[in-house]
Amino acid sequence: MTRGRPRKTDPNEVLETSMKVFWEKGYDATSMNDLVAATGMAKPGLYANFGDKETLFNTALTHYVKILGNQMEEDLATSTDPLPVVIRRYLETVANANLDPDGPCGCFFVNSLVESSHAPETTEKLTRRLDAERRQALVDRFRRARAAGELPADVDTEALGEFFAGQVLALAVMARSGIDRQASERFINVAMTALPDKN
Fold first, then answer.
1. pLDDT at residue number 11
2. What does the pLDDT average to over 26-43?
């Protein structure tokens, strides 16, 4: 008699796997049975470690943002590189993550943001808060750049932050629709032309 697949008991491993399931299928299309099949952890274990599907999704989304988003926001906040270098690196990090062949297509956060209007209230609030933090990190970086003379004194940092936050969304949606790396790079090149020259 053959043995079944061993059950996973490491919560971190289960969280990573659950995140990829939600990332690929979305909140609505993912069932607890899907999560059980993917993680190898029985329903009682999932509930005991992570709560219900809604709570597990929110934990997985927060985990994703912590892995990728916090690193990017820290770079915006602390890097001493010239502004164009920092912003290009920000966009390229997004593009590379979206086009990673080892992960589901697109961006888990952007996918969740698009679907948030159909998600539970706690999930909608979470995605909106995380999105606001992402946008604010860009605005803050542009404000510091303006104060340091890297941008014209009259530049609208709010509008600039909104614009580049929008480019992140566009890159994620384009990746999900099948854009390749060269097309992504061309898109970034054009987006960078919106960055005002300090002169």
1. 86
2. 92
